[in-house]
Amino acid sequence: MTTAALRPPETAGLGRGIVFALCAHGLLILALTYGLNWRSDASPAFEAELWSAVPQVAAPREEAPPEPEPEPPKPDMLAQQRAAEEAAAEQREAEIAIAKAKKLKEDKAREEAEKRERDKAAKDKAAKDKAAREKADKEEQDRKKAKAAKEADARREALRQENLRRIHGMAGGTPGSTGAAAQNSAPSSGYAGRIKGKIRPLIIYAEEGAANPTAEVQVTLGPDGRILGTRLLKPSGDGEWDRAVLRAIDKAETLPRDVDGRVPPVLILTFRPRE
Question: Is the pLDDT of residue 66 over 70?
């Protein structure tokens, strides 16, 4: 007995049933798979590795581009223009103020300089006028002094001549007479030396120099020889010498009589430091 004989007979329609069952299960699996996939990650369902015969450097990892920085707010061109105009206006005003101050300072300096020049010119003119007046006054004084000195010299000379005439005319003599009366009326030859011999020791004069000034003095005498007065007829040009001579005559007080016992009423004496 064979195996085929032992196997039960095939049921009619079994193959179609298996195929239908497989199809049903496939549809069920497909429906379940679709229901799960639409809620899951959308990553690829499979991965694949590529191999090559030559090793290659891996590409750098792609980085996300940096987020762009926010653009700064655009400046307000009108405000900038207004600010620039205001700054320019302020600068112009400052420059104008500086220029005005500089001009004011220069004007003040110029006025002060002009004032100094005017004051200097006025002072110079006043000084010149004063010098001219002083010069004119001095010249006038010199003229007056010269005139007065000339007149004084003339008076002294006239007085001297008068005194000489009086001396020669004593005792009835007349000027120019050559008689015995005229000779007897004149002082003796040594009388002037006796008078100077009394006066000279009394002269105190410390000045010494090359000059030898001459002082001419008129002495008025009393009958007893007392000195009644003195007058400087001709200055020597050295005031100290003139004063010393006059002081010495005043100190003498009296002068000696002549050999005949008489005293001339007027004497004209000359004195020099070195005689």
Answer: no
